[in-house]
Amino acid sequence: MEQLSGQDASFIYSERGHAPTHITSIGIYDQSTAPDGLVTFKGILGEIEPRLHLARAFRQKVARVPSDLDHPWWVEDANFDLEYHVRHIALPKPGDWRQFCIQVARIHARPLDLSRPLWEMYVIEGLDAIDGVPVGAFGLVTKIHHAAVDGMSGVEMITAIHTQTPELEIPDPPDVPWQPDDDPSTIDLLGRAGVNALTVPRRGLRLATKMVPGAARAVRVQQRQREAAPLATAPASRFNGPVSPHRVIDACFFEFADLKPMRALVPGATVNDVALSVLGGGLRQYLLDAAELPDTPLRAMTPVSVRADTEKEALGNQVSAMLVSLATDLDDPVERLAAVHASTTASKEMTEAIGARNLTELSQFAPGALIGLGTRLAGQFSRTGTATAVNTVVTNVPGPRQPLYFVGAELVRSFGAGPVVDGMGIINIVGTYIDQFVLSFTADREMMPDPAHYASCINDSFHALQAAT
């Protein structure tokens, strides 16, 4: 048994039926590269089963402490059933992009069963009318709870079931055969909680000692930033209120090589700055068309991985966050990129002053019941039309630069979907795969009934910045 960190556990406590907290990986595959040009569902099960030991999250479930007096524990599930987790459906004809996105959004909207290992996989056939995708392609939609993986370790989990060539390869078996755990008893869980309660004060004191120098630096950084630009809350927007149980999903695909001349427009700008600027332009146009564009810029929270190289195979989240401006008040794409770059630079300086890992470790000391109560209260107080801390999340999940294969079928498109919660009705995901640069998004369907229009706004924003080069 291994205990969840405070940050991982917070995704369990904050889970709501209408707002689940899993992430979803979406891939489209060309089965013509597979042996005999055909992939069967039985073959998929046979490919996944010998790879389960490559990612611990496949067979681990969560055991919660009564009344959430302490953080939950990971337990090897004695009742693990692969066929429960891997499912098979098909689109009706014609099987176009819109049908696929609607089906993926419906799958993504449904919560995972928290009493089982926290993932599900859907094989979707019938993708015969998607532009740029071979006829006979199939989709693979993988839902993984955010408590188990952050974006980076989520990529590692997906990689566990892929190969770098179309030849079918059986991985080496584990050095130690997998052994399930007995479900811990209530007495056992409460006993562990009591032991942890005795050690938390000492751990908290050590963390406070580490943070004192950083806090002093952060105060000085914040003072300089206030003098340069007054600190303000994010403006009200349609995306910052209670969410419904329904979702929309879409994605835009570009050439990664086109980003280099865009970055050169502003000295020091990064790929992430370009992505934030393009999304800022897309949101600006979308809200402008709805006559809802605020005078002040929208603000995004961008997760930052603090996972060390030695922790790449560890379960759970190792992330902190930055708050950055999307410069939606600026019409000129180059001016917007410069403003975004200035904002990300300032936010990085603040995060580094305290120490991103120290901020992450703070979550370890919050009792589960308190985190759950705070999340519920935040949801109750969130109302559309009021100022907020941030308007959206923009997370960067870089993918492999070489082709991947699943059961011999080549992955030709890859993008992701994330959780939306009360007060945060849209999340944007920045991804890459081979030479593709991908901007995808998940939104509440009531807040964004026209996802294709927002996708069009993102495309227009990208090409406007490209034209400036």
Structure description:
This protein has 469 residues and is an alpha+beta fold. It has two domains: 2-190, Chloramphenicol acetyltransferase-like domain (Chloramphenicol Acetyltransferase, 2-Layer Sandwich), CATH 3.30.559; 214-398 and 426-467, Nonribosomal peptide synthetase, condensation domain (Chloramphenicol Acetyltransferase, 2-Layer Sandwich). Helix content is 36%, strand content 21%. The chain has helices at residues 6-13, 41-48, 82-85, 97-109, 151-159, 186-228, 259-263, 271-289, 333-354, 356-362, 368-381, 451-467; strands spanning 2-3, 22-30, 60-63, 73-76, 86-90, 119-127, 137-145, 247-255, 299-305, 319-325, 392-397, 405-406, 409-417, 426-433, 436-444. The strands form three sheets. The protein has a six-stranded mixed β-sheet, with helices on both faces. The chain has a six-stranded mixed β-sheet with strand order 8-15-14-11-9-10, with helices on both faces. It has a three-stranded antiparallel β-sheet with strand order 1-4-3, with no helix packed on it. Helix 4 (97-109) links the parallel strand 5 (86-90) and strand 6. The longest helix is centred in the middle third of the chain and has 43 residues, at 186-228. Mean pLDDT is 84; it is low at 218-222, 225-231, 305-319 and 353-378.
